[in-house]
Design brief:
single chain, 176 residues, mainly alpha, 8 helices
């Protein structure tokens, strides 16, 4: 079991370095520096609130499901970050390229990725036509976390699973 986990970790480190190695590409760097904020607390909360306040049904109910998913998905994020204090890749992997003033909390799971998938999933389920817009944006946020040197791929994958699961459960529970 230990050997398998080590092989998975080595694969993950290679994948991280492959994605992070493009940090010096100016166009990608600018894109990922901005897109990453779509998964931040300010943007995700503000988006849900604006959709609830300024739109009618069914958007209002879907936004409410997204808000609930955002809230409930971050309970396990909060708990797991304390139970499993994984150091961020820029602290453990040599030659990681990163932003100035990087985050200092724990890496696993990615909160930004969890947030963007928890907010997007109810909208994807109710308005499938938005898939062509929302899914690339959500995956861009996820990829940005690796590109910017802040998360391992498994941190991001866990965030996708947590966010999409919470989004699906809340979508079903609110039943727009």
């Amino acid at each position: 079991m230990g050997r398998l986990l080590n092989q998975l970790y080595q694969f993950e480190c290679k994948l991280f370095k492959l994605i992070n190695s493009h940090f010096e590409r100016k166009g990608l760097n600018v894109y990922f520096r901005y897109i990453t904020h779509l998964g931040g607390a300010v943007f995700s909360i503000a988006t849900c609130l604006m959709l609830m306040l300024f739109f009618n049904e069914p958007v209002k109910t879907v936004a409410l499901a997204s808000s609930a998913a955002l809230f409930f998905s971050h309970i396990p994020v909060f708990i797991v970050k304390r139970i499993y204090p994984r150091r961020r890749p820029y602290l453990t992997l040599f030659e990681t390229k990163m932003l100035e003033n990087p985050l200092t909390d724990h890496s696993f799971p990615s909160g930004h990725t969890t947030a963007v998938f928890s907010v997007a999933t109810p909208f994807l389920l109710f308005f499938p036509a938005l898939t062509w817009i929302l899914l690339p944006l959500a995956f861009s946020v996820a990829l940005s976390r690796i590109f910017l040197g802040l998360h391992y791929p498994s941190d991001v994958l866990a965030g996708i699973v947590l966010g999409a699961s919470a989004g699906t459960i809340c979508f079903v529970a609110f039943g727009p």
